[in-house]
Amino acid sequence: MSKTFRERDTYRIDHYLGKETAQNIMVLRFANAIFEPLWNNRCIEQIQITCSENLGMEGGRGAYYDSAGAMRDMVQNHLLQLLSLVAMEPPTDLSADGVRDEKVKVLRSLRQWDTPELVADNVVRAQYIAGHVDGENVVGYREEDRVDPESMTESYVAMRVLVDTWRWSGVPFYVRMGKQLPKKATEISIHFKEPPTVLFNALSGGVPGGNVLVIRIQPDEGISLRMVSKIPGSSLRMEPVKMDFHYATSFGKGSPEAYERLLLDSMAGDATLFARRDEVEEAWKFIDHIHHAWHQSKLPPVMSEYVAGTWGPKEADDLLGKNGHKWRRL
Asked: Annotated catalytic sites, by residue?
């Protein structure tokens, strides 16, 4: 393609970048003075990006999926794009290359899991086995139509990602994607560090958790902020509450389909929401090390299992547990 088309005339479509809430990440960060001063390792403890699907290999997708897997089907493109929007520095302007220059810097700053040992410590892969989803019995991944009965292709992946920049040093980004999980949803959750609790040490139970900012990409597009509030009454008791913003109710109309926006932008010559070549190559560089460790290293392959209709394998919980963290339940 590069022999025929110039890079500025090439539009690599990724429908996640056309979702309204994904486009709103930059506005949330850079147009609101209450967030940008906190958007760094001094205030943020961890960030989680989750894509949960409650489907398996319906529609004859088994042959394709068994050659791709969760990592290459969803993480390399959609989820790393969301990560780069969350982690990027303010662009010099809102031009296509101004935004994409900053996203590329994030992808170049990803710490590479480039040995089998590092992959084993930071990445979990798994396949679902027979279980129940939405009240229906479902077969395991290896029993799906057109899937190799001895397949070593992951239907679930969870990993710890480190962005080695001044802003994000020491903050883990946890990314997970899975098939046949309990519900369909994609969200980003920013977990802020907890304040000193010396004022409330005498209270039973202490302070109930910290502040969490949740960006819901789909299906219920919106943003919520969790904070701690006093329960009405004569005694001092606290519980978490939410401030919630929904696109559909706040603006009185639904968001356009992602492909509608992206196709319109391509006709208008606006490449802001399209991946540039160096952006794609940096994302593949990060993913290829992991795939090499899974399929070409001499270490014995490890494939975890989880029951369809659950939130994934125990190993994924242990991945966060090593840092004293837990997955946020959607």
From this structure: 78
What's the pLDDT tens digit per position in 244-282? 998 878 877 767 788 998 999 999 999 999 999 999 999
Preceding peptide of 219 cis, ω within 30°: yes
d(CA 245, CA 261): 22
The angle at the Cα of 181, spanning 279 to 255, to the nearest 5 degrees, equals 55
Burial 15-27 (b: 16+ CB within 10 A, else e): ebbbbbbbbbbbe
pTM: 0.93
Collapsed DSSP state (helix, strand, coil) of residue 145: coil
134: alpha, beta or left, given left = phi > 0 and alpha = psi -120 to 50?
A: left
Among residues 208, 205, 206, the alpha carbon closest in space to that of 229 is found at 208
In terms of C-beta density within 10 A (0-12 exposed, 13-18 middle, 19 or more buried), how is residue 29 classed? middle
Q: Which are the contacts of 164, defined by CB distance < 8 A and separation ≥ 6?
A: 109, 110, 111
User: Distance between CA atoms of 65 and 13, rounded to whole angstroms?
Assistant: 20
Secondary structure (3-state) at 52:
strand
Stretch (H or E) spanning 188:
strand 185-192
Quote the DSSP letter at residue 111: P
Q: What are the residues whose beta carbons fall under 8 Å from the beta carbon of 237, sequence distance 6 or more?
A: 203, 230, 231
What pLDDT is attached to residue 206?
63
Go through the domains of the chain in sequence order and give each one's CATH number.
7-194+265-314 (3.30.360.10)
Q: Are the CB atoms for 133 and 115 separated by under 8 Å? A: no
Q: Which helix (H) or strand (E) holds 216?
A: strand 212-218
- Which tokens sit at 134? 């939405």
Is the predicted pLDDT of residue 201 greater than 80, yes or no? no
